[in-house]
Amino acid sequence: MAFDTFYGNNSLKDSISRQIYTGTLSHAVILEGEEGLGKKTFARLIAAALLCAESEKPCLECISCKNVLKNNHPDVLFYETEKHTAGNFKIETVRQIRELAYITPNQADRKVFILAEADLMNTAAQNALLKILEEPPKYAYFILLAKRKSAFLETILSRSTVYSLMPVSDEQAVQAVSEQLSGPTDEEIEKCVKLVGGNIGAVIAGLKGNELLRASEKALEIANAVCESYEFELLKALAEFEAAGTKALLVKTAEALKGVFRDALALRSGSEVLMQINAECAERLCSLFTKKQLFALMEVSEELKRRLAKNMNQKLLITWLSAALKKAVEY
Ligand SMILES: [Zn+2]
Description:
Blueprint: H1 10-22, E1 28-32, H2 39-51, H3 63-69, E2 76-79, H4 91-101, E3 111-115, H5 123-134, E4 140-146, H6 154-159, E5 161-164, H7 170-180, H8 186-196, H9 200-209, H10 211-227, H11 231-239, H12 247-268, H13 279-288, H14 291-309, H15 314-329
Parallel strand pairs: 1-4, 1-5, 2-3, 3-4
Helix pairs in contact: 2-3, 4-5, 7-8, 8-9, 10-11, 10-12, 10-13, 12-13, 12-14, 14-15
């Protein structure tokens, strides 16, 4: 099957592949999806398929395919913003793209423009882009990548075909990540997948820093310590955060902690836990505390996030946290 190096999204891959074979792919494609789902990777694969002369498109073996995937093909032009902030996809860049689009391809018979973070264009830039999307040269294709299609003007959307990338299954995510990272164990990968779901990029990012995993473990440790009516456990769980350089971890832990308490509260209210990794701890919290206490715990994690954002002294913050968690469950 075409695009089989790209995990999941089977019907989307089928549909695009069919359109490439029949020459019916829209000259303006919007690939929509959260960060980490592989928009750039998939856009390059589409570009490779558009340029590949073999019967299986993209074959990934021919010189053209290889150069496209290495970002080294003169007829595949890739654009990304410098600052990754709103409005940072500049109108000057769009004008440059427009000029280049009217120059015929160098080697291939098609020319593909990949506009990563196209949703960071302001209205003026989008209007400039619209001019070329309205009447693109026969050989030119534009692949616009965006977190959400809602960032685009109606006029852009009406000229484009929108495709949404979806997270893959947990099993596929585990397989994909273990192929790409040699460091983490299968168990670590599975844990991280349970935490962030089938977003392969997010799992890899989490494992690389390993902070996400550590933060979730830390949050479970703190939540379990709250279950022990023994203050020492809580102090032990929080001790790590008294050291310098642990703020980033604490920020992630605060978020994960909120998730644990939220899941326990959901369980108390008869719903299901959202994150598998929290299940055991959420059940424990749920069996020990009332809805009111669980709500108070969640409030503490919210307040922790707010206080962290204010850059308070971390030692004082930890002292406050320990007291606030105890107070929430009143032991
Ligand atoms: Zn090829």
